[in-house]
Amino acid sequence: MADIFGKALMDYHHGNYSEDIKTYSSLDEEDVIPLPYLFRDFKEMPKLEQKALKLAYGRILDIGCGAGNHALYLQNNGFEVTGLDNSVGAISVCKERGVKSAVNTSILTYDKEKFDTLLLLMNGIGLAGSLDNLDPFLQHLASLLQPKGQILLDSSDIIYMFEQDDEDGGYWIPDNGKYYGEVTFTMEYKGEEGEPFDWLYVDFNTLQNACEANGLNCELVMSGKHFDYLAKLTKT
């Protein structure tokens, strides 16, 4: 499978930046991921990410670590952190940038160690792919936690992307049997298109209910300015 994301990160890291990643979604949205943003430092990160990094403690697993921004910040502040990503290119970039421990694998197949903090930033819970997969995904994350460990994740309630009914303030959501936060994305970079992949945006109440069903406490730590939030999950 083409590593579109990894190729783009490698190009930028090696000084070959000429264009950004294009994304196409099942919501009929076209967008771009600016490559410089994927190499941001702490000061350039959203408040939710900054808050999560300040709350991280102990041995840390940075899931979906990308170019290693979060891992490097934590490592430079004395933490033992492992970056994990299923992109070969991303992990190469992490190592070249100085991340001491970086693993190229899917989180769903990773079971090597237990951690005090699991980080899933930039909507990392999206890796669950669908609402049906959220329960087993949460169970797997919980299996990687030390007894008093925590999961820090951010996500967005994308209800705002649907048309609003002026009369009652509700939203027009397609009745296709799917949860409205289930989205399919395709990435394109330098004319090459990757395989479509499923992604999940989950509203806080739905996340909280899923956590309760799987033996996890779910605390709302912080709300962002645009339907986004930071949550802290712990074992009950």
UniProtKB/TrEMBL annotation:
InterPro entries per the UniProt record, alphabetical: Methyltransf_25, SAM-dependent_MTases_sf
Enzyme Commission number(s) from the entry: 2.1.1.222, 2.1.1.64
Domain of life of the native organism: Bacteria
Transferase found in the keyword field: yes
Biological processes per GO annotation: methylation
CDD domains associated with the record: AdoMet_MTases
Keywords tagged on the record: Methyltransferase, Transferase
Keyword match Phosphoprotein: no
An example molecular function term from Gene Ontology annotations: 2-polyprenyl-6-hydroxyphenol methylase activity
Domain Methyltransferase intervals: 60-149
Membrane-spanning parts: none
Pfam families: Methyltransf_25
Name this polypeptide is given: Class I SAM-dependent methyltransferase
Provenance organism: Flagellimonas iocasae
